Amino acid sequence: MGQRKASRDGDRKVGRRALLIGGTVAAAGSAVLARDELARLWWRTPGVEKPREAGAVDYKGARWVAASDANWRRADRPDDFGIDMVIVHVTQGSFDSAVKAFRDPGHKAATHYIVRQDGHVTQMIRELDVAYHAGNRDYNERSVGIEHEGFVDRPQDLTDEMYEASARLTARICARYDIPVDREHIIGHVEVPGTDHTDPGPHWDWDTYMRLVRRARTTPA
């Protein structure tokens, strides 16, 4: 979440552009692009609903608490948008306040996961869906966002239990989508182009975190 409330990410508008995809794009000789765009819009077609299991989680051991559907949008990742990044956040507040914010439709932002200081993991958005968390549409579509309970200016908030639990979570995400375990693909919110956020802040121990992710990546789930 960083040092101020996350900005709202614009959603894909389906209007005249979508209606003209078949004609305009095909006329340009780009039928493949038309098919790709239509595939990304399947979930907006009236009456179309991909089967979902209520309360299902992508990470074993996580607890499901649903974010408001105003804070994410339905997708079919990685089939429509490839996932190649994990983005690390710090809540700038308590775990409970982050959950409350992500369930509030007026907040207009949420991450897929929140990791508590004791290592408990809560999932609020399915990985196949696009969470509004990065402040950058392209990065939202290609990433999984993980919040961590605490404040960026309080190193004591970044507990060993939190690092270890988050590292196991990130390792499983990287394994699932074949994401390289490096700092080009596991980044902080502050590193997202165009953002004005500072999290995870100067006290986040990237060396320790990446070492833990690499270790977890080679450990059977």
UniProtKB/TrEMBL annotation:
The keyword ATP-binding does not apply. One of its GO terms (molecular function) is N-acetylmuramoyl-L-alanine amidase activity. Transmembrane segments: none annotated. Its EC number is 3.5.1.28. It is an enzyme of class 3 (hydrolase). It catalyses: Hydrolyzes the link between N-acetylmuramoyl residues and L-amino acid residues in certain cell-wall glycopeptides. This is N-acetylmuramoyl-L-alanine amidase. It comes from Streptomyces iakyrus. The lineage of its organism: Bacteria, Bacillati, Actinomycetota, Actinomycetes, Kitasatosporales.
